[in-house]
Amino acid sequence: MKALIIIDYVNDFVAENGALTCGKPAQVLDDYISELVEDFSKNGNFVAIASDRHPENDVHSPEHGLFPPHCIEGTAGSDLYGKTLERVAKVPAGQLISVDKCRYSAFAGTNLDIKFRERGVTDLYLTGVCTDICVLHTAIDAYNLGYKIFVCEKGVASFNAGAHQFALEHMKNALGASIV
User: Fold this and answer.
1) Which domain holds residue 143?
2) What are the start-end ranges of the H helices in the chain?
3) For the chain, what is the domain count?
4) Could you report the per-residue pLDDT of 125-164, keeping only the tens digit for each?
5) Domain with 137 in it: what CATH number?
């Protein structure tokens, strides 16, 4: 069984006025990711949303001090971006998996692995931002958990073009991910 994981495709990382925006490189992914959502759900596969979310004044996160406050619970910054939000709203409830995370990886401190195992998911298709941070760390954990990894090249972006390219190469060469 397959699952599409949309990693941190939220306003604070994508929108022009986001707290830690990747800007245009992330914004142009919206049509592609929203089409993937439709394709995966139409074909009976799962769509997983892994969104960074922090309580206000979160001093316990390891990100505290590394980055300005972002993805605060209850704010528009923590909401999915653009058309992707609209498409996700149409995914049948039984096919939608959603986890809030406060670490880079979608697996760290969440029950995402359990949810995938319960549903027989073996193949993960990764999209979202940032390629070199949260997408990469999710891929590393997926590799260590034994999943087959596919990175949707037209569905990932970063604010750092060099780091984006490094992460794609690393996922391919060190994790055996297929870049599709």
Assistant:
1) 2-179
2) 11-14, 24-27, 30-42, 82-88, 112-118, 136-144, 161-175
3) 1
4) 999 999 999 999 999 999 999 999 999 999 999 999 999 9
5) 3.40.50.850
